[in-house]
Amino acid sequence: MKLPEHSLKTECPTRWGSRQAMIERIIEQQKAIAHVLSSDKKSRHLIPTWQDMDVLEAINKSLHPLVNFKDALSDEKYVSVSFVKPVLHFFNASFLKIKDDDTDLSKAIKSKILEYLNEKYSDPDIQALLDMASTVDPRFKMRYTAEDNKTTIQSRLKVEMQTLAMMVPPQETAQKTSEEDAEAGCAPKKKMTLGSYFKTAEQALPPNNQKSSVACELESLLQSSYLDSEGDPLKWWKEHEKSYPRLSKVAKKYLCIPATSSPSERAFSSGGNLVTCLRSSLKPDQVDRLVFLAKNL
Fold first, then answer.
1. Are 111 and 98 in contact (CB under 8 A)?
2. What string of DSSP letters covers 106-121?
3. Cβ–Cβ < 8 Å for 259, 83
4. Is 273 found in the same domain as 144?
5. Rounded alpha-carbon distances, angstroms, from residue 235 to 89, 164, 230, 231, 251
6. CA-CA distance, 120 to 88, in Å (whole number)?
7. What is the chain's pLDDT, residue by residue, as a tens digit (297 residues)?
8. pTM given for the model
9. Domain of residue 284, residue span
10. Same structural domain for residues 90 and 134?
């Protein structure tokens, strides 16, 4: 029948998208399935009718556009949390929008999916987190933030910028400690340069100056050009970290959040593959190291 030589797929309750993959494969192999079933009198009643195929095609048509989004949001090799708000916007405005040529079943499926997603992300705290993550992503900024929330998000960003700027990173603390230890020992004291007298710590700035510099930094980011939608925001922040010293710390805080639980579930699966009946005496620290190596090599 000149069909691709594919096996049929089975739906897995714990794997999102497996139902759509199963239905898509049945539609692809419909002629072969009907031919095999028709050759056996006991199985002829299982041949899908045209009504069955209409149902399967309606389900596949509604779910197929979501597959690529699911795969992208479940990945762990690039930033995903800032995609949630734009994806929800596209679902409501385009991909899951009810069309005139949709069947009643397709309309019901799309409405149910949108109702579930909008309710899932309706919590104000979740919305604020997603808005913060999108704002510090140079691909989106505040493009998908509601107009009545932009002022609130900007205020929250300014507070976090000031708070994170006051914190001393661990590496800086370690560097200061090593310098103090060197001075306490026999190491020669480093000669101070003229420029060191003008180097002022951020904490020493008057509060008004801090607020002004924070506001200017945020405004500069919002006024800058957008990064290409296929660009890497982490590389962008690495290149512009010195231009936005406070915002870069906020970006590190939010852009590391995974959009889904898939990365953690993959880590659990790796642990399950390592800790078997034959290796049940592994120490927890050893398991941690093995899982780390399995996920990073």
1. yes
2. HHHHHHHHHHHHHHHT
3. yes
4. no
5. 25, 21, 12, 8, 12
6. 11
7. 889 999 999 998 878 889 999 999 999 999 999 999 999 889 999 999 999 999 999 999 888 888 878 888 888 888 999 999 999 999 999 888 888 888 899 999 999 999 999 999 999 999 999 999 999 999 999 999 999 999 999 999 999 998 887 775 555 555 555 555 555 555 566 666 666 655 555 555 566 677 788 899 999 999 999 999 889 999 999 999 999 999 999 999 999 999 988 888 888 888 888 888 888 889 999 999 999 998 888
8. 0.75
9. 262-296
10. yes
Backbone phi, psi, residue 102, to 5°: -70, 145
CA–CA distance, 268 with 209 (Å, rounded to integer): 48
Q: Is 125 inside any structural domain? A: yes
How far apart, in whole angstroms, are the C-alpha atoms of residue 56 and residue 103? Answer: 12
Query: Token pair 């690495």 is at which residue?
Result: 238
For residue 133, being part of any structural domain is answered with yes
Tokens of 168: 């001393």
